[in-house]
Specification:
binds pyridoxal-5'-phosphate, single chain, Aspartate Aminotransferase, domain 2, seven-stranded mixed beta sheet, alpha/beta
Length: about 375
């Protein structure tokens, strides 16, 4: 302790004074309560979660077998600290050296690592105003400015984003396809954007839902890493591969970028079961991807028809979700649907007031949603 420093003897030392303004002013995300409490609170006989874009088919068979075969006694052993075997498997599958992958406790952890690696005080990140909010949140609670560029026709606007870049822009986040609008940049738009950005900024292409996209013009950003060493691609095992509970996702980029990000990572944050399950599904998805795609496509067609019949505007491009505009406040609609056992995402928090987002799932659950939603819309219209 320095000699000219005396700790305050005041008993009521205000803890808030230790908290930087950017942390104090940050509104923390409130996770939902467990199902049994929600069912009691809303008097719902069951609960279908259509709020988090989870895959109801669960993990592919190979992941289930790998987890079941793992001896319980071995849970006393720390996981491999840098997902060594999984990175080797990813390298074989995608044609990069294993060193170019970095695995995290969900791809959300990798967002934090990348911002820590590249952004210091006074720097900024650029992304859209209506996209996956974690880019913005991590920047904000780290004291980094998040520049949010309005969507254009529900899609990321490349021109407007380029106009917001400056010397202090370190990372640009592009969500492709975008959560929640389902729009995506085709290959030509992405390549043109990267050419114009140059190499002065890291460009993250978040492909959390890429496995659901079957359109011909949809780009695989991994193929651009060789040409643009500032490109980083995010993927996750939480969506298509049904491993959300195990928390595992990864980034892939050029060696110098990954080397920088690796310095800011927590070793051991990715558990053993997650690593072995992910490795198993990379080797063999057992038809799971095709089954999931089909389920989602059928659900999208079914709900689009429903929203048309109810004369409600929808936004539903790619990904395992669809949005619909409701004639009342979206939080109110959330509560009304909760009483019927349906949990959707109310979208005010995504800057889409008056909209809800619905996860595309299996036919029985979609029919259950359709009945509850139609009844609520009818009731709202009768009352007005
Ligand atoms: C666009 C996008 N990126 C990343 C994630 C985070 O995925 P993970 O579960 O790997 O943290 C999500 C999850 O909702 C997402 O929608």
């Amino acid at each position: 302790m320095r000699e000219d420093y005396t700790p305050s003897s005041s008993a009521a030392a205000p803890i808030e004074e230790l908290v930087p303004d950017y942390v104090r002013n940050f509104q923390a995300y409130v996770p939902s309560k467990p199902d049994h409490l929600l069912m009691r609170e809303y008097g719902a006989p069951f609960l279908h979660r259509l709020n988090n874009n989870e895959n109801p088919l669960g993990p592919p068979p190979a992941a289930r077998e790998a987890i079941a075969a793992h001896p319980v006694e071995r849970l006393s052993i720390y996981p491999n600290g840098d997902s060594f075997e999984l990175r080797e498997a990813l390298g074989r599958r995608f044609g990069f050296p294993a060193e170019q992958f970095l695995v995290g406790n969900g791809s959300t952890e990798v967002i934090t690592s990348i911002i820590k690696a590249f952004c210091g005080q006074g720097d900024n990140i650029v992304t859209a105003d209506k996209t996956f909010a974690v880019y913005e949140w991590v920047a904000e609670f780290s004291g980094i400015e998040a520049r949010l560029v309005p969507l254009r026709d529900h899609a990321f606007d490349p021109e407007a984003m380029l106009a917001r870049l400056d010397r202090r822009t370190k990372v640009v986040f592009v969500c492709n396809p975008n959560n929640p609008t389902g729009t995506y940049w085709p290959a030509g738009v992405l390549v043109d954007f990267l050419e114009r950005v140059g190499e002065r900024h890291i460009v993250v292409v978040d492909e959390a839902y890429c496995e659901y996209v079957t359109k011909a013009g949809y780009p695989d950003a991994m193929t651009l890493i060789g040409r643009f060493p500032n490109v980083v691609v995010f993927r996750t095992f939480s969506k298509m591969y049904g491993l959300a509970a195990l928390r595992i996702g990864y980034m892939v980029g050029s060696a110098p970028v990954v080397d920088a990000v690796r310095r800011t990572c927590n070793t051991y944050s990715v558990n053993t079961l997650a690593q072995i399950a992910a490795k198993a599904v990379i080797a063999d998805d057992g038809g799971h991807v095709e089954r999931s795609r089909q389920m989602v496509q059928e659900a999208r067609a079914y709900l689009s028809k429903l929203f048309d019949a109810l004369e409600l505007p929808g936004i539903g491009g790619e990904g395992s979700y669809i949005m619909v505009k409701v004639p009342i406040n979206d939080t109110l609609m959330y509560r009304r649907l909760m009483r019927r056992g349906i949990m959707v995402r109310s979208m005010t928090g995504f800057r889409f007031p008056g909209w809800i987002r619905v996860t595309l799932r299996e036919p029985e659950v979609m029919a259950c949603f359709a009945e509850a939603f139609s009844n609520e819309i009818k009731a709202v219209r009768q009352a007005s």
